[in-house]
């Protein structure tokens, strides 16, 4: 198969006393996401999409939340490991499209840095990485600012080398 597609989804609750990390960027906000690692929902959804495209399971299979090695770890470091797995399977990333679902905080000022972080970790051009943000118009857990969700879809191509 020359082209493979994967989809990913993640959600974490917002809590007091944690930094809010999205796309490897620390966002100024009064609450952060609860999780074993840095709880970066954007990168977690992206890793699930990439692993799914390779039929390699999900991030829990590769980076279990009961493993102390991953406690508080930057999800960007885990994303770099997934990038190496992709290369090892003989694929390269064609494109990435992601969306963060959060009522607050407003994320537009941080999107370019998120795209840059993802592109750097995956060793691809920033033009292959899309990050968008939306609200739910105050509906659901995201709309009540109880948590943040993210979705990702990716296209992988068989490396021509």
TrEMBL record:
<feature type="binding site">
    <location>
        <begin position="10"/>
        <end position="12"/>
    </location>
    <ligand>
        <name>4-CDP-2-C-methyl-D-erythritol 2-phosphate</name>
    </ligand>
</feature>
<comment type="similarity">
    <text>Belongs to the IspF family.</text>
</comment>
<dbReference type="GO" id="GO:0008685">
    <property type="term" value="F:2-C-methyl-D-erythritol 2,4-cyclodiphosphate synthase activity"/>
</dbReference>
<dbReference type="GO" id="GO:0016114">
    <property type="term" value="P:terpenoid biosynthetic process"/>
</dbReference>
<dbReference type="InterPro" id="IPR036571">
    <property type="entry name" value="MECDP_synthase_sf"/>
</dbReference>
<feature type="binding site">
    <location>
        <begin position="63"/>
        <end position="67"/>
    </location>
    <ligand>
        <name>4-CDP-2-C-methyl-D-erythritol 2-phosphate</name>
    </ligand>
</feature>
<feature type="domain" description="2-C-methyl-D-erythritol 2,4-cyclodiphosphate synthase">
    <location>
        <begin position="3"/>
        <end position="156"/>
    </location>
</feature>
<keyword id="KW-0479">Metal-binding</keyword>
<feature type="binding site">
    <location>
        <begin position="58"/>
        <end position="60"/>
    </location>
    <ligand>
        <name>4-CDP-2-C-methyl-D-erythritol 2-phosphate</name>
    </ligand>
</feature>
<dbReference type="InterPro" id="IPR003526">
    <property type="entry name" value="MECDP_synthase"/>
</dbReference>
<dbReference type="GO" id="GO:0019288">
    <property type="term" value="P:isopentenyl diphosphate biosynthetic process, methylerythritol 4-phosphate pathway"/>
</dbReference>
<dbReference type="GO" id="GO:0046872">
    <property type="term" value="F:metal ion binding"/>
</dbReference>
<comment type="subunit">
    <text>Homotrimer.</text>
</comment>
<feature type="binding site">
    <location>
        <begin position="36"/>
        <end position="37"/>
    </location>
    <ligand>
        <name>4-CDP-2-C-methyl-D-erythritol 2-phosphate</name>
    </ligand>
</feature>
<feature type="site" description="Transition state stabilizer">
    <location>
        <position position="135"/>
    </location>
</feature>
<feature type="binding site">
    <location>
        <position position="141"/>
    </location>
    <ligand>
        <name>4-CDP-2-C-methyl-D-erythritol 2-phosphate</name>
    </ligand>
</feature>
<protein>
    <recommendedName>
        <fullName>2-C-methyl-D-erythritol 2,4-cyclodiphosphate synthase</fullName>
        <ecNumber>4.6.1.12</ecNumber>
    </recommendedName>
</protein>
<feature type="binding site">
    <location>
        <position position="12"/>
    </location>
    <ligand>
        <name>a divalent metal cation</name>
    </ligand>
</feature>
<feature type="site" description="Transition state stabilizer">
    <location>
        <position position="36"/>
    </location>
</feature>
<feature type="binding site">
    <location>
        <position position="144"/>
    </location>
    <ligand>
        <name>4-CDP-2-C-methyl-D-erythritol 2-phosphate</name>
    </ligand>
</feature>
<keyword id="KW-0414">Isoprene biosynthesis</keyword>
<feature type="binding site">
    <location>
        <begin position="134"/>
        <end position="137"/>
    </location>
    <ligand>
        <name>4-CDP-2-C-methyl-D-erythritol 2-phosphate</name>
    </ligand>
</feature>
<comment type="pathway">
    <text>Isoprenoid biosynthesis; isopentenyl diphosphate biosynthesis via DXP pathway; isopentenyl diphosphate from 1-deoxy-D-xylulose 5-phosphate: step 4/6.</text>
</comment>
<dbReference type="InterPro" id="IPR020555">
    <property type="entry name" value="MECDP_synthase_CS"/>
</dbReference>
<keyword id="KW-0456">Lyase</keyword>
<feature type="binding site">
    <location>
        <position position="44"/>
    </location>
    <ligand>
        <name>a divalent metal cation</name>
    </ligand>
</feature>
<dbReference type="Pfam" id="PF02542">
    <property type="entry name" value="YgbB"/>
</dbReference>
<feature type="binding site">
    <location>
        <position position="10"/>
    </location>
    <ligand>
        <name>a divalent metal cation</name>
    </ligand>
</feature>
<comment type="function">
    <text>Involved in the biosynthesis of isopentenyl diphosphate (IPP) and dimethylallyl diphosphate (DMAPP), two major building blocks of isoprenoid compounds. Catalyzes the conversion of 4-diphosphocytidyl-2-C-methyl-D-erythritol 2-phosphate (CDP-ME2P) to 2-C-methyl-D-erythritol 2,4-cyclodiphosphate (ME-CPP) with a corresponding release of cytidine 5-monophosphate (CMP).</text>
</comment>
